[in-house]
Amino acid sequence: MKKILTMGQSFAQHRSRAVESLERRLFLRQGLSLGALALLSGCSITDQEGVEKMLLAMSRWNDRVQGWLFDPTKLAPEYPESAITRPFPFNAFYEEDEAPEIDATDYRLELAGLIRDRKPWTLPELYALPQVSQVTRHICVEGWSAIGKWSGTPFRTFLQRIGADTTARYVGFKCEDDYYSSIDMATALHPQTLLAFRYADRILPAKHGFPMKLRVPTKLGFKNPKHIKAIFVTNEYPGGYWEDQGYNWFSGS
Ligand SMILES: Nc1nc2c(c(=O)[nH]1)N[C@H]1C(S)=C(S)[C@@H](COP(=O)(O)O)O[C@H]1N2
Ligand SMILES: [Mo]
């Protein structure tokens, strides 16, 4: 039991109220975590590796249940433009001055996997897609949140345009800074999931993900990959940078 408490405590130290309420919503909907935890007391708690494997298996099971319960029509709250946070906080697995510098003219978005038209996209081609804006709250698991305005093309519009197999399970993202992540197809098709090119009506600055990020207001911040260089559609679980270190993969509503 010791290991679980330690994990819980370290999470609690970094937890904001916004994260708590998101987690509470998830917990209420799953209704599984306690029962699954009770099972753990039956296993040898001196075997740390065994406990960790079991926790990971539970987390993957919770991902599946959350996917079944997820309501693709339920919207994240939107805010007035006066609520936009300026400047927006930076976060990455490195310092702000190490954010990748990407050349706009050389840039090509690569496509792979279960997609009919896998031709790479230039930035002018992407900017010519239909554009929408949203003012939503970004919640980071490290205990902060901020409201932002992002503009770009609805991700489902883009997936349709490229002939993605929308019956596949996952959409994966590879980033210029070696970050990577993936989301379930229902979230990829959610009306508020955006392939975003702008923050507060300006081209995304380098630190916030130039030339584009996936804006997913129904999920925690780490499920919003910046500096996307490749998008792929697959039925094989792709994981992610933080997801592979034990953060729950679904991490959203
Ligand atoms: N490519 C890339 N995307 C990333 C990250 C990263 O380190 N690299 N960090 C994630 C995390 S944990 C957060 S909270 C947000 C931060 O985005 P921001 O710098 O625009 O606030 O980006 C997410 N996407
Ligand atoms: Mo984050």
From TrEMBL:
Full protein name: Oxidoreductase molybdopterin-binding domain-containing protein
Domain Oxidoreductase molybdopterin-binding: 99-242
Record lineage: Bacteria, Pseudomonadati, Pseudomonadota, Betaproteobacteria, Nitrosomonadales
Pfam families reported for this sequence: Oxidored_molyb (PF00174)
Native source organism of the sequence: Georgfuchsia toluolica
SUPFAM superfamilies according to UniProt: Oxidoreductase molybdopterin-binding domain
